[in-house]
Amino acid sequence: MIATPLRTNSTAESVLQTIRHFLELIRFSHTVFALPFAALAAVLAWVQPDSEFRIRDLVGILLCMVFARSAAMAFNRLVDRDVDAENPRTAVRHIPAGLLSVKAVTLFTLLCSVAFVASTLIFLPKRLPLLLAVPVLLFLLGYSYAKRWTSLCHYWLSAALMMSPIAAWIAVRDEFALQPTLLAGVIFFWVGGFDIIYACQDSDFDKGRRLYSIPAKFGVAGALRIAFVSHLATIAMLVLLWSLTGLGTVFLVGVAVIGVLLLYQHWLVRPDDLQRVNIAFFNVNAIVSFGILILGCIDLWVQRL
């Protein structure tokens, strides 16, 4: 009579712990990097004179973002599990540490992939989201192999994330357009730059394991210079976005602030001091991402007053 509740509590705790492990596996908190850009693209699409706001489109965008990213991250952990086990920095990740099994992560990846494709049905009768779902998913999953053959793997990742504003625009308007493409350009150079910074931590390991990355090819100092140029291009793309999409003074002031934050990121990380990479990677870039969304929305609201 007493043992049953105890077993029930133990089972509940085990389920919650497994859920927590999966959320940690896919770095769910890192969704903040791409989701705000998708949200801003959707807002820009909804304010077009001939657009109609539908709650189902908003739900569909959120579901597609979560499932596509979860599938890609889980697949990446599967592909990299042997490499992760050899790298002291990543040996504590869930598969090499034995916290999650290969079978469980494989099943999770398949379920998220199916859920992503199924979520595009929400946008019907718009057909482009459904037609593009599988090619987009294959491109996202393909990133996991990039480090095995090209030093430009960082920009494959950024190309994967840059699809988010384009996809959100298509979900709302069922068409390609300039505005989300400019937002995508911002993501391409921004994510590519900060992923290069993050990869500097594994420069020696990548060279020893014969894996490809910009830090492994050009050294940490050279990689940081390339990342700096990439972030200068990010600022240029933000200015271009401002000038060609009718955004106003509020957004332009925000671009200046974001420029300062990107420069601050490069001040935090130096060739002989990589201890603050995680601060630069998550804290600064989360502010940049949400800052662009918030400033863009405020700017559009001010213009409509």
From TrEMBL:
GO terms for biological process: ubiquinone biosynthetic process. The keyword Cell membrane applies. Its EC number is 2.5.1.39. GO terms for molecular function: 4-hydroxybenzoate polyprenyltransferase activity. Its main location: membrane. InterPro entries: Polyprenyltransferase_UbiA-li, Prenyltransferase, UbiA_prenyltransferase, UbiA_sf. It is a multi-pass membrane protein. Keywords: Cell inner membrane, Cell membrane, Membrane, Transferase, Transmembrane, Transmembrane helix, Ubiquinone biosynthesis. It holds the Pfam family UbiA. The chain crosses the membrane at residues 28-47, 59-79, 100-122, 128-146, 153-172, 178-198, 218-244, 250-269, 281-302. Belongs to the UbiA prenyltransferase family. This is 4-hydroxybenzoate polyprenyltransferase. The gene is ubiA.
